[in-house]
Amino acid sequence: MVEKSSGRSEGLNLPVVEEFHSVQGEGFHAGKAAWFIRLGGCDVGCNWCDTKFAWDPSVHPLIDTDDVIEKAVKSGADSVVVTGGEPLMWNLDYLCAGLGENKIRTFLETSGCCPLSGKWDWICLSPKRNAPPPDLICSMANELKIIVETADDFKWAEKYRSLVNSKCELYLQPEWSRFESVIPEIVSYVLKNPAWKISLQIHKYMHIP
Question: How many domains does the chain have?
Fold first, then answer.
């Protein structure tokens, strides 16, 4: 293994908030089992964020990335979802390399506001107005997921639809606390714009992490 002296800058240890085996609740892979790694740190600051406990990386211990990889391998899962917070605040090259060596697929959930690191089998991009992503990660995204809080978010969705590649899966997801008010608008929009699909947070309906 690589020396740990480079530490955080080389991704040899990471601020882990939680690690758990669960079912993907959103987007293209909804309903599939995966091992989840949630990393601390995010300065995007979405008012409706449901993981604000992950924003401050200083309250989450730095964990040896080899240990993180070992736990994922021992879980028996064939895929790992790396989420946050904003996971791209950290260098994820070492993590992805270790998972890949063990034939584990790597899925990323990101706002895209930070430089891309790591080698990914699937990138879910969920751009936020507070910190828009650069065009490069847009062109690499396998999935575009727009959180819909108000009608203006449909314009935001179309802006990023024009930036992603032609094979990118397109999803509109209601902001959870405004579900009842926005879901009729989303349904109406998808009926008129069938390139888009609806993503629901099914894990919340099933009361699982």
Answer: 1
